[in-house]
Amino acid sequence: MTIDWSQQRILILAPHPDDETLGCGGLMSKAKAAGAEVYVQFMTVGDTADSSPKGVSTAAERYGEIKRVAEFYRWDGWEVAFPGDEFHLKLDRLPRFQLANMIERHSALSIAELRPTTLIAPHRTSYNQDHQVTAEAAHTALRPSNAALRHHPALVLAYEEAADQWRLEPAPAPNLLVRLAESHVDDKVAAMRLYGTQIHDHPHTRSELTLRSLAALRGMQGGFSFAEGFHVLRWSA
User: Which biological process annotations from GO are given for this protein (predicted)?
Assistant: First the structure.
């Protein structure tokens, strides 16, 4: 399977700011260098309790981080669908119909408006409820239908994060390995550092060593130095 990233318009669904970098940071670096368009649809952002001296990361801080990461990666667009504490870490309270419709058509970065060639969403087996409902809503929005009437991205992937290993039922191993150069991994780590409220010292699922170790493991599984792993949900050749 060979993907010409220079020809791709990529839409990434990120439940929260940093998920797109944790799951696709290397791919974004590789694709943008090749000439791809990259868009990020964040689902929600709000004040977040954390282990910092303050004990909380504010929504304003996290918006600032998004802007710095967007500039770093040269994203072609991004937006937040459901901002505020009413929704943050509570997306499972929203009707699936509302979530799926936002992804499908009710957003400037919806499938209908953007017409991406590649869509990448979180994996359903994450322990996080916002990740789960985002994955399920994307699955609904991407349901099979007449492609002459509804846009169907040719490539649909689910990304992984190290924290997804905390599962009641193990997920299958990724069936697509996107080969990365060391510079792509460096960019992923640099972007996570820009998410200063979210990166942590090792041992943590969002530490630099964790990111580099997972990239090295996925690379080894493909016979090269570094990679990111994905689950192929649809590939229309």
Answer: glycoside metabolic process
- Under a CB-based contact definition with an 8 Å cutoff, are residues 40 and 14 in contact? yes
In a domain, 173, yes or no: yes
Pseudo-torsion of CA 99, 101, 107, 112, nearest 10°? 140
Among the ranges given (38-52, 144-158, 171-185, 211-225), the one the predictor scored with the smallest mean pLDDT: 38-52
Instruction: Say how far apart CA 14 and CA 131 lie, in whole Å.
Output: 8
Could you count the other beta carbons within 10 Å of the beta carbon of residue 56? Answer: 11
Domain with 93, as residue range(s), is: 7-235
83 assigned to some structural domain: yes
Query: Domain of 152: which CATH number?
Result: 3.40.50.10320
What are phi and psi for residue 212, nearest 5 degrees? Answer: -70, -35
Q: Is residue 2 part of a domain?
A: no
| Three-point CA angle 42, 231, 169, nearest 5° | 95
| pTM of the model as a whole | 0.96
Counted domains in the chain: 1
Alpha-carbon distance of 118 to 127, in angstroms, equals 25
